[in-house]
Design brief:
The structure holds two protein chains of two kinds. The radius of gyration of chain A is 13 Å and the shape is globular. Chain A is mainly beta. Chain A contains no helices and twelve strands. The termini of chain A are far apart. In chain B, the strands form two sheets. In chain B, strands 2, 4, 5, 6, 9, 10 and 11 form a seven-stranded mixed sheet that branches. A four-stranded antiparallel sheet of chain B has the order 1-3-8-7, with no helix packed on it. The radius of gyration of chain B is 13 Å and the shape is globular. The termini of chain B are far apart. The chains are: A mainly beta, B mainly beta. At the A-B interface, strand 5, strand 6, strand 10 and strand 11 of A face strand 5, strand 9 and strand 10 of B.
Chain lengths: ~110, ~110
């Protein structure tokens, strides 16, 4: 069965600093990988996804993520964080046999001015 | 921009009562989903729905749960006899195709069972 681990429950960064949120997955074949963001009072919004091809994926809001098969990772990055990026971030994995993603527990991003 | 809407935003009910959570998916979408998130835990898949029938469900989605698309716009989740452990945030989502993998989520309904 597929699974996702987000090892950091909370991450605190200063505005303007770079950001990396970690995600590790467990799945036997090539996974489909996603990052979602949830702002307070909002639903989950898809930031980016990886299905195949270039392992560096660009998403919305200046985010990118890199698929590293050797490390079973799909870490989310942003070079310069804005206060509006404060939110909950969820990594998810899906498989070709099912279009239902399995979510990680989420990482809460706190941005200090 | 079209969006998924959910009502109510917060529902409080007593244990044993029936609740219906409502969702209006994006109008041209064909696939509909319910997820739940117990406070502090993962977002968990409950059920997917396509062509007026359940296409996939998790072990959480037992006989206490049912889904329905009563008309061309609404998609509902019913819990027949709520339990304390049903307290959670329930998210509805929709997508335009099974292989697009891009699901659009609503803002959620917070269900509190007392």
């Amino acid at each position: 069965a597929q699974s996702v681990t987000q090892p950091d429950i909370h991450i605190t960064v200063s505005e303007g600093a770079s950001l990396e949120l970690r995600c590790n997955y467990s799945y036997g074949a090539t996974p489909y990988l996603f990052w979602y963001v949830q702002s307070p009072g909002q639903g989950l919004q898809l930031l980016l996804k990886y299905f195949s091809g270039d392992t560096l994926v660009q998403g919305i809001k200046g985010f990118e993520a890199e698929f590293k098969r050797s490390q079973s990772s799909f870490n989310l990055r942003k070079p310069s964080v804005h206060w509006s990026d404060a939110a909950e971030y969820f990594c998810a994995v899906g498989s070709g046999g099912s279009y239902i993603p399995t979510f990680g527990r989420g990482t809460s991003l706190i941005v200090h001015p | 921009e079209p969006e998924v809407t959910q009502t109510p935003s917060h529902q409080v009910t007593q244990m044993g009562q029936e609740v219906i959570l409502r969702c209006v998916p994006i109008s041209n979408h064909l696939y509909f989903y319910w997820y739940r998130q117990i406070l502090g835990q993962k977002v968990e898949f409950l059920v997917s729905f396509y062509n007026n029938e359940i296409s996939e469900k998790s072990e959480i989605f037992d006989d206490q749960f049912s889904v329905e698309r009563p008309d061309g716009s609404n998609f509902t989740l019913k819990i027949r006899s709520t339990k304390l452990e049903d307290s959670a945030m329930y998210f509805c989502a929709s997508s335009s195709g099974s292989l697009s993998y891009e699901q659009y989520f609503g803002p959620g309904t917070r269900l509190t069972v007392t």
